[in-house]
Structure formats: structure tokens, C-alpha cells
Amino acid sequence: IGQMVENGYVTKEEGDKARAEPLGVSPRRNGNYLFAGEYFTEDVRRELIARYGQDALYEGGLSVRTTLDPKLQLMARKALQDGLIKYDRLRGYRGPKSQVDVSGDWGAAVGEVKGLSDVPEWRLAVVLEGSKSGLEIGLQPGRVASGALDEKRETGTISAEDMSWAMRHVVDGKRVKAKSPADVLKPGDVVFVEKKEGSTGAYELRQPPEVEGGMIAMDPHTGRVLAMVGGFSYAESQFNRATQAMRQPGSSFKPIVYSAALDNGYTPASVIMDGPITITSGGQTWSPKNYDGKAAGPSTLRNGIERSRNLMTVRLANDMGMKIVAEYAERFGVYDHLAQYLPMALGSGETTVMRMVSAYSIMANGGRQIKPSLIDRIQDRYGKTVFKHDERGCEGCVAKEWTGQPEPELIDNSEQVLDPMTAYQITSMMEGVVQRGTAVTVSELGRPIAGKTGTTNDEKDAWFVGYTPNLVVGLYLGYDKPRNLGKGATGGGLAAPVFKAFMGEALEDTPVVDFKVPEGMKLIAINRKTGMRANEGEAGTIIEAFKPGTGPADSYWVIGMEGESGVGEISSEARKAVTESPGGLY
């Protein structure tokens, strides 16, 4: 206004009058409504400070282009939040957020309670009255332009049906079955609610989950992080569980072990004994078990990963040596250093979701190393590029016009850390995990997807990492202070449905793309249980991928039949038993 007066656009009197008018301030619209990327942007902020320092970040005029895909980010946030809420509801209702006095202006009272700014679908409300049929609630007022509470008061209802899950509520650490909504919540209790779809004044009771999780979606060819969710609510906890939480990956680590084996002379049809094993080291013994406590006898590597057999994985790691397993785990970036102990083959070492997704990207892209990145490009205040993530060269990109030359080609100079044929074999085996194994629920998406479930000791974490040819997604669910998730809380039961929900949306209206078979790979029909070449018309066959110079065994050999790392041939009677055996449960 002062400049307008000084430059003659308005008179001094008009300027004074304008200055005297109250300044209305519109409440800041939270960025969560746009892309829900608080965890992502906070990691970007930390990286920029690490690279250039705080002064350059806040005062240097940097222009930063990130890798975030807003649509995928919203999908990932919803999928993980829904999965956390679904599990948390099964544990019972823990009670109100707080309590306020409703004898006076209940709107002013509940208006002072802090909600979840990054879960805009939820509102705070105070219970005004309860009965057998439900609750009458008063909704937290909004804010007017000045920032003050709106004087308008809005009420609603929660029917008994819409809070039926909360009838199992927690009292003194024990779940108790209530007879009426009025037994669960009292007048003055402050709760979270969400408007019931298609209604005007009806709401559903909500509860922020205690269980947490982290999730990342990545382009396997470039390492670009397309979506990142570090927990249920950034407003509640800024700890990023996708990049900062060190967790045991459990069986989701097994594809690294199997990749090492396939790269070192084994085939998907190699047969390993799925039976009891005792390892003695340093005067101590260790006897691992399968999740179901059973043993299926001799089984192929493919069956071992499809059914996530611990005993087979330990025997495989023991047979080829933990030195090789550790080398591949470090090559894939899962760990900087992996202790060479057999329990580590079952994923007992701690790592992050980011590292696991990066490792699976190597299998998805044909075996090339990738560098995960949240940033595509950084330019200084003068427009000069000071950082670019994609360092691939492009032959022919500088041509001004087409003169019959070949189309431009991106040259990928990234390191080949896994044989492309091995990458296809392990991918094909993990397609079996989805089609027949521990993640069969994902098969309902009806397209080529490879992946692996993970469940840690005592069911403290549930993992799933999976991919299509162009998108890798990994996640885990678990408490921040690890504790048992409950009987049957597996990666296939908890994490895989979250993956499925996300992929169902992310892949909608996109073409179905098959995994590319490397040139020279042989596809041969084998008996699914024995691993031997299938006879014409034989039942129980599967098409298996073999590298040149390899193929189904001519005789039936089992790793682990003689000693714990020996190889022995078994009789035709034993082969018949294996062929007719129902196999293990998962």
C-alpha cells in the first residue's frame, strides 16, 4: 500500500483507510490434501541439507525436481493406512483420545483438541449422548478466515452397527465384549470419526492404529522412488519407517539366497531335503523349523521358495556356504556387512524397506545395479544443473532432424550384478509364490507379478515385496517396539493384501506386460515335485527355465540326504513317495 501511495496509484487518505481495515487471513491449506507426501519431502529436505547445508537449502534459491508421482503417492498412503486400520480393529477399541466438559459450549471444548492434520478424512468429535442404538456426537468446529473457531455447531450420529467392531474394547489390557455403545463411550469422550459414504449426518467410529508400517514404490530401471509412506500419520510420528526403521525382513530375504544359488550352479529344479536339521556351532545347537512345523521331504528349489520352506533354505545356504550368501546380500545392498551365520539366511539381520525394494529392483530389471533416488534434478538460482540422478547416455539425442538414422537409444552403464538369466529364473520362481504359494491372494490381480512374503520370528513383522516388469513395491507392518502381531499374522495375510490394494489401483488401465525371457534361456516341462523331465501327458508338470548347458536331472538327486550338506541318490520308491506327497502347508 505504501508503494501504491508513493507512486501515485492511490491517495494518502485512501492508503490510510486501507491500512486501517482488518487483514483477513485464509487458513493455510495443508499439502496433504494434494499428495500426502510429508515423509517423502522430509527425506528430500534431509538429503539437501546433507549435500549443500541449511543456508543453501533455505537461502540459496535451489530448484529441486523430485521423483514423486502424486497419484501413486495417494494410492500408497490409502493402501497402507487401510491395512493398518483393518489389522488394528481386530485388536479391539482402546478408548477415546481425550475427554472434555460438555456441560457448557462443547464446540469450544473439543475445538482445542489437536487432531490429525494429515488424515483429512477424519474429524474429531465429542460424545454428547449414548444409548443401545448408538451415539450422538458433536463435531469439532472448523476455523474462519481470522483463525478463530467457527461459531456454528454441527452434530451427527454413530449407529451401533457403524461401531460394531469397537464392541470388543480394551479394559485394563484385556478385551471385553460390550453390550451397548453406551458401555464403550461416555458423554465428553473425544473420538475420531469419518463421514459415512452417501449419508448426511451419519459417521463411523475411527481409531489411529498402534501398529505401524512403511511402504515404497520404485521404478526398477532407474531407482526413482515414486511413492513413500513412512507410517500412518506424519502428524503423529515423524519417524520414517520406510527408510529409518531397521527391521528383520524374514523370508522376504530368501530370494537373495536363491539368487546366489542359481548364479552358482543350482537350477530351479535342483532338489533339496525339506526335513529336520540340527546345526552345531561353537558348542551350541540350532534346529530351525518351517512355519507350519512340518516337513515335506525332498522338494525343488522352486517349491522351496513358493512355500517359503525354512529348512530347505538353511540346507541350501549350508550347502553353498554362507560366504556366498553374504557376498550376494552385500552386492544387492540389503546389508553393508552380513555376519556369516546360517540364521542370517532366514532374514534375521536388520535392514530397511528402501534397501529391500532396491534389491528386488535388481531382480526385476534383469540384474543391473540401481541407485535409489528421491530427486531427479537440482538447479541453482541461475538455472545451472548441479545434480542429475539419471546418468544414462543417449546416442543420437542431439540430432536436429531425422535423416534416416536409428532412433535415439539410452545407454545404461550401470553395473551388472546378477546374471540376467538368473534374474529371470528367480522372477519366474517368485511368480509361483503369487500363483500357487504364500501370496496367492495377489494372483487375483490377473497379471504377471513376482513377489515374496516375509514373516519374522514370533510374528513380529509381516512383509511383502513384489514387482511387475516396471514397478517394485515393498512394505512391512509391525509395532515400533516389536512385539507379537498375533497368531497367523503373516506376510501373506497382512502385507500382501496391502500390496494387492495398491497395485490394483496403480495398474488400472495399464497394459499387461510379461517378464522378458532372456535370449538363450531354455523352457522345459518338468515334474513339479521331482524336478525331472516330464513325460508326455504326465500330470503335475510345470514349464521351468534353464540356462544353456543345464536342464532337468537325468537321475533323482537330493541335496542334504547324506549329512547336512551331502548329495545322495534315492530309490524309485522314494521318488514315488515324493511325487504323491501333498507337500507342506503355508
Task: Give the SSE layout.
Elements: H1 2-6, H2 12-20, H3 38-52, H4 54-59, E1 63-66, H5 70-90, E2 98-99, H6 106-111, E3 122-130, E4 134-139, E5 154-159, E6 168-171, E7 174-177, H7 181-184, E8 189-195, E9 203-206, E10 212-218, E11 225-229, H8 254-262, E12 271-274, E13 279-281, E14 284-286, E15 297-300, H9 301-306, H10 310-320, H11 322-331, H12 353-364, E16 375-379, E17 385-388, E18 393-395, E19 409-411, H13 420-435, E20 450-455, E21 461-468, E22 471-478, H14 491-506, E23 522-527, E24 541-546, E25 557-559, E26 567-569, H15 572-580
Antiparallel strand pairs: 1-16, 2-8, 3-4, 3-8, 4-5, 6-7, 8-9, 10-11, 10-22, 12-15, 13-14, 16-17, 18-19, 20-21, 21-22, 23-24, 25-26
Helix pairs in contact: 5-14, 8-10, 8-11, 8-13
In short:
With 586 residues, this protein is α+β, with helices and mostly antiparallel strands.
- Give the overall shape, derived from the CA principal axes: globular
Largest sheet: 6 strands, antiparallel
Output the structural class.
alpha+beta
Give the second-level CATH assignment, the architecture of the domain at 92-206. Beta Barrel
| Measured distance between first and last alpha carbons | 73 Å
Number of strands: 26
Q: Roughly what percent helix?
A: 25-40%
Q: If you average the pLDDT, what whole number results?
A: 91
Q: Specify the CATH homologous superfamily of the domain at 92-206.
A: Nucleic acid-binding proteins
- What is the third-level CATH name, the topology of the domain at 92-206? OB fold (Dihydrolipoamide Acetyltransferase, E2P)
Report the uncertain regions: 563-586
